[in-house]
Amino acid sequence: MVRVKEVDWSVYLVTDPRLPAERFLAEVVEASIRGGVNVVQYRDKQSGTRNMVEASRALCNLCHRMGAYLFVNDRVDVALAIDADGVHLGQEDMPIGIARRLLGPDKLIGITVHNVEEIKEAELEGADYLSVAPVFATATKPDHQNPLGLEGVRALAAHANKPLLAIGGINRLNAASVIHSGAAGVCVVSAIISADDPRRATQELHETVKAAK
After folding, report:
1. H or E segment at 96?
2. Neighbour tally for 160: CB within 10 Å
């Protein structure tokens, strides 16, 4: 059973099928865990179900072997197939209540929120953690909503009773300000996956977040 209080949300890695261009994803994920990542979200909106199951199962086994958690983005069926630790949903994905019924009480469910109303609804429906996005503009999701900025994070964090994570354009240089704005942790993609040395990049980011806390 995964319990929310057991999870270190400080640095949360989200994968991207377009990255890394020259390395195997498993190598980058392993390096990131060694550097301090405790949660990995497998996100792939392009591959077919069979490939997603195979790739995410390999990452799930790796994460569990190293003491980290593996969540699946959007796909509750894939999370069930590989016995992932949970799922991360968007506002257009399966409702939290249905996902909970399928996954059972022992898995964690996170959801992306953009305003106070969505925070209240998510917590009422039983979300275990929240993610606000985007904090800053990011190349990994150029079609996203307008950036919240630090003030936006601060305003939403004031209404959250669950761990609130921040994603979108976050790196070592601005992570501390995000934590000071009320986030329990930072979610990153390219700051780790595209780094020349993913382990070192994670260590530096993890140290920055821990110091800010």
Report:
1. helix 96-103
2. 22
Where b means 16+ CB within 10 Å and e means fewer, 64-98 reads eeeebbbbbbbbbebbebbebbbbbbeeebbebee
CA 201 to chain centroid:
17
Inter-residue contact 40 to 33 (CB < 8 Å)? yes
Joined tokens for residue 30: 């392993």
What pLDDT does residue 125 have? 97
pLDDT at 22 over 60: no
What pLDDT, on the 0 to 100 scale, is given for residue 138? Answer: 78
Map tokens 């968007």 to a residue. Answer: 90
Max Cα–Cα distance, the chain, nearest Å: 43
Closest to 169 (Cα-Cα) out of 157, 187, 181: 187
Instruction: Please check whether residue 160 is in contact with residue 184, taking contact to mean a CB–CB distance below 8 angstroms.
Output: no
Contact 209, 186 (CB under 8 A): yes
Q: Any idea which fold 4-212 has?
A: TIM Barrel (3.20.20)
pLDDT tens column, 65-96: 999 999 999 999 999 999 999 999 999 999 99
Q: pLDDT, tens digit, for every residue of 128-178? A: 999 999 999 877 665 567 899 999 999 999 999 999 999 999 999 999 999
Note the Cα 94 to chain centre separation in Å. 17
Contacts of 106 (CB under 8 A, 6+ apart): 1, 2
